[in-house]
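Figure 3 (text version): structure tokens given as input.
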């Protein structure tokens, strides 16, 4: 079962990420622009009078070697499954019932992309904690916007989230749209084609349908994102005729968007 089963556990995970990864991230070139104010603000706002369970085991990860460290934010309406997606990514296990996130959830995991070790630092934040999440937009390398494919209103708010990213995020941000809860096919209210159209219009790298509950397409979403970030940050160089493009990681319910991002794959910058 998921390790985040109560608000107290949730905070302890936040503390763990804060306490263990802050020193590493602050000294890492990718995070040199993060000010201590960002971190303190998060700590003051979210972490209150809690112990630090799990800090020792997480400490080992801090020493783990990685070639690249990317920060990916996961945003979207409440209850679309953001926390479950990052839990599924972290542990391949998801609880039936998740509490609402207070502030920002963190997870850090290393994945291998073409033999490169990539550390993905992932956060999911809630809209009502706007001031916290906006500061995270600024320093993100990639963003996943999630909607619940069984609730049309969560898809209809995607333009709002995209606009927020355009306003607060970096121009080079890699965007992926995620239609979560694809196990609820009978309750589907959003056609995959609609998500693909929106992804194409908004310059997203891909649209995918995922199930955090069944761990479906979660790894693929992060692999796809990490691979694109590696390309953009000079970690992978694609030839035009190279066959192992990111599309090989996609299932039938995912859709890579051709265009601007694909051109950038061959770019060294
Ligand atoms: N059927 C199904 N339910 C899911 C899936 N992912 C999440 N859920 C359920 O959806 C509910 C909301 O999940 P959360 O992960 O807390 O959603 P969230 O987007 O993080 O919500 P906030 O913290 O309010 O922003 C929970 O009851 C989950 O068990 C999924 O893939 N399939």
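Below: residues designed for each position.
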């Amino acid at each position: 079962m998921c390790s985040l089963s109560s608000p107290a556990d949730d905070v302890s995970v936040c503390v763990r990420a804060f306490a263990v990864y802050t020193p590493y991230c602050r000294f890492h070139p990718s995070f040199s622009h993060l000010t201590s104010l960002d971190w303190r603000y998060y700590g003051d706002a979210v972490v209150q009078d809690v112990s630090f369970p799990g800090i020792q085991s997480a400490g080992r990860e801090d020493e783990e070697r990685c070639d690249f460290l990317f920060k990916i934010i996961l945003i979207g309406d409440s209850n679309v499954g953001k926390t479950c997606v990052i839990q599924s990514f972290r542990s391949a296990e998801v609880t039936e019932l998740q509490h609402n996130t207070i502030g920002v959830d963190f997870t850090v995991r290393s994945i291998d992309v073409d033999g490169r070790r990539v550390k993905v630092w992932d956060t999911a934040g809630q809209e009502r904690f706007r001031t916290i999440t906006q500061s995270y937009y600024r320093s993100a390398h990639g963003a996943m916007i999630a909607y619940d494919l069984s609730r049309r209103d969560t898809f209809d708010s995607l333009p709002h989230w995209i606009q927020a990213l355009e306003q607060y995020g970096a121009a080079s941000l890699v965007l992926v749209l995620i239609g979560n809860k694809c196990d609820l096919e009978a309750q589907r209210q959003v056609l995959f084609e609609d998500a693909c159209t929106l992804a194409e219009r908004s310059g997203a790298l891909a649209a995918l349908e995922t199930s955090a509950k069944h761990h479906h397409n979660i790894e693929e979403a992060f692999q796809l994102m990490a691979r694109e970030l590696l390309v953009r940050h000079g970690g992978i160089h694609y030839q035009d005729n190279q066959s192992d493009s990111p599309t090989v990681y996609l299932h039938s319910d995912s859709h890579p968007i051709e265009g601007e991002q694909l051109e950038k794959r061959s770019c060294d910058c």
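The radius of gyration is 17 Å.
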